[in-house]
Amino acid sequence: MLDQCPADYRTYAAWRRHPLVLAWLTVQHLEGQLAALRTAYRGMRVDLADQVAADALTDVLEVLSAEGARLVASRRSASLVLDAMEGKVFVPRL
Q1: 90 assigned to some structural domain
Q2: Is residue 94 part of a domain?
Q3: pLDDT tens, 44-56?
Q4: Residue 91 maps to a domain
Q5: Number of compact structural domains in the chain
């Protein structure tokens, strides 16, 4: 969980003493990162069109897309850990 949060979070002993809170906070942090990334993705082409070359924008949008996929997977993983810690039962679906 700490790997998905800002590095400074490692200095707070409370997160180690309260893993449920850490799991909840990790999900919140990942959702915030994902929201910020989506905002950047939507606005980048318009906001930076006059300042950055079109091919550079394309490269950056590809990176943002890959980072978005990573964040979605991380959020899903953290959510599953939180659900397990809260006692929810995982039911696999096809």
Answers
A1: no
A2: no
A3: 988 998 999 989 9
A4: no
A5: 1
Q: How far is CA 79 from CA 16, 40, 44, 68, 75, in A?
A: 18, 24, 29, 16, 6
Instruction: Confirm whether 6 is domain-assigned.
Output: yes
Quote the tokens at residue 1.
Answer: 């969980």
Average pLDDT over residues 81-86: 96
**Domain, as residue range, for 76:** 2-85
| Per-residue confidence band for 89, with pLDDT thresholds at 50, 70 and 90 | confident
CA 42, 45, 51, 56 torsion: positive or negative? positive
d(CA 28, CA 36): 12
Residues 25-52, mean pLDDT to the nearest whole number = 94
